[in-house]
Amino acid sequence: MHPAFSVVFFTTATGAGYGLLALLGLLGGLGVIPVDFWLGFIGMGLALGLIAAGLLSSTGHLGRPERAWRAFSQWRSSWLSREGVASVATFIPAGLFGIGWVLFGRSGGWVAVAGLLAAAGAVVTVCTTGMIYASLKPIAQWHSRYTLPAYLIFAGMTGTVLANALLQGFNFGSGAVLACALFATVIGWGWKLATWRHNDRLEIPTTANTATGLAGGTVRSIEWPHTEENYLLKEMGFRIARKHSAVLRLITQALAFVIPVVLLAIAFVLPWPLAALVSVLATISQFAGMLVERWLFFAEAKHTVMLYYGR
Amino acid sequence: MTCLPAHTDKKLGLVIDLDTCVGCQACVTACKEWNTGGHMAPLTDIDPYGGHVDGVWFNRVHAYEHTTEAGGRTVNFPRSCLHCETPACVTVCPTGASYKRASDGIVLIDEDKCIGCKLCSWACPYGAREFDTDVGVMKKCTLCVDRIYNDNLAQEDRVPACVAACPTSARHFGDLGDPASAISLLVEERGGVALMPELGYKPTNRYLPPRARSDRAAKIDAPALQPIKADGGFLGWIDRMLSN
User: Fold this and answer.
1) Which residue of B has its CA nearest to A219?
2) Integer Cα distance of A84 and A7 in angstroms
3) B118 touches chain A (CB under 8 A)
4) Cβ separation of B122 and A231 shorter than 8 Å?
């Protein structure tokens, strides 16, 4: 599948944004992390900024972005529509929580309720994003039990690492949050390795035989219907050489998992503000790594239509 | 509404005979000609006279070599929308632009509602939908809705343009939901198959597999070529010289 940058950035940015929003809503609303105007202002600004930037970026993928409002109508059948509804609906409790927690400097009571609702909305929205991909049967690498948990795990992971950097930056860091960020990154790494292992061993029942209805023997494409690349080949026929795939997987693991794990482990023993500095570096490295991961998620996915082209 | 109708009165579709299709591309050009002025017009061409020709087509004819124990054969394979009974391209549509008609089962796009998110083309395993980069919306086969119900056309012309154009009658149009229709009987007789049934989209269109090879044909194996034996004389001497 063609890795459109607008969609790669959209899923990565909103994942981190919703992860951070869920943590701030949960921990801020319940008063686990301290009420502080600048912490709240920067934190909610980052979370909502990442979400808004991602959503805006996703409209860049559309042929007719001026009609994007229509996408809120078909939530009964379409995961993409559900994502649109959930993402916009989440802004309501998130906005109320932001007003209560940041502007009024309160936690507990209605602020906690708004924070919990914002966290729930964030989880639901990430689920709908994951289901858009997990529900597509023609793409076996996506239509698997690994896809939905991956979106949730990576949103939680990037959100926790970002929240840790934020708290460390304001010198509110704690060993518990740092440990959570480290643990989440290890979980993310494990899930990615398991997903790759699963995809590399995938046996797809759909073949050129079932695609053409020609039973038995081998079916070999000898002539395409067209001499130049068409929409199908450009959109669904994106291919990445195996050797590049291997290198990019290593880059993903280094940037998204190994470097953050090392930096976060170092942060345990460093005093402030050095601990804050390495926490921020871990976040930046992980975000860059997740962009590569999401690019590969698209580039390594194969669509059944390519069977007709012998690819 | 992108929820699917529980029942369609008819299941209009195509039956394509892979035995008699000669791969002449007449259906492809007839489709393009009709539909670039039809319901989903235009079928945009990008850079049609340049080096990177691209454009929207509803019907594409592939060619395959099918090799079995009985030997190999070339199979021409027209590929277009199969008007599935449970089309995921419709249910994934976030705007309601894609829909399946309850009256005849035809899957259509309302171009005025399409936002061009391309998700329907990802959801279709058959590559039936093609994006029009010029207009910014998705396009697909309409089963020539503007021909098959067109009172301005003679009765015999009220078939999809691809069916009307086929010189070998490899394309058939009719109601596959009616077991007594001519097209259903043809599918029954020839063992018509659905494409990628394992994915569960229940395509309406059927493909008739090539007929079995006949063993009644005359055996006219050509005699093996005999090696030319160099004999004596002048020509033999030349042959020996050249062979060295």
Assistant:
1) B66
2) 14
3) yes
4) no
The CATH number linked to A282 is 1.20.1630.10
CA angle A261, A262, A266 (to 5 degrees): 115
pLDDT digits (tens, 9 = 90+) for B78-136: 999 999 999 999 999 999 999 999 999 999 999 999 999 999 999 999 999 999 999 99
Cα(B167)–Cα(B29) distance, rounded to whole angstroms? 13
Give the residue numbers spanning the domain of A196. Answer: 5-309
C-alpha torsion A76→A78→A82→A88, nearest 10: -110
Tokens (6 digits) for B154: 């003679």
- B63 neighbors A223 (Cβ within 8 angstroms): yes
Residues of A in contact with B90 (CB under 8 A): 77
Cβ within 8 Å, pair B62-A223:
yes
Yes or no, beta carbons of A64 and B114 under 8 Å apart: yes
Q: ipTM of the assembly? A: 0.93
Flag residues of chain A having pLDDT under 50. none
Query: Using omega within 30 degrees of 0 as the cis cutoff, is the peptide bond preceding B42 cis?
Result: yes
Q: Which of A230, A233, A238, A306 to mutate to test the interface with B (most CBs of B within 10 A)?
A: A230
How far is it, in rounded angstroms, from Cα A58 to Cα A124?
Answer: 18
**C-beta atoms of B88 and A67 within 8 A:** no
Among the partner residues A225, A235, A236, nearest to B61 by beta-carbon distance? A225
Sheet with B206-208, strands from edge to edge, namely: B171-175, B12-17, B206-208
Q: Into how many domains does chain A fold?
A: 1
d(CA A2, CA A108): 46
DSSP A275-295: HHHHHHHHHHHHHHHHHHHHH
Closest-CA distance of chain B to residue A302, Å: 11
pLDDT range class, residue B234, cuts 50, 70, 90: confident
Long-range contacts of B177-186 (CB under 8 A, 24+ apart): B177/B8, B177/B9, B177/B10, B177/B11, B177/B105, B178/B10, B178/B11, B183/B13, B183/B15, B186/B15
Q: Which of B3, B68, B196, B202 best probes binding to A when mutated, by most A CB atoms within 10 angstroms?
A: B196
> Any bridge partners for residue B65, and if so which?
A220, B74
Residue B230, chain A, CB below 8 Å: the answer is no
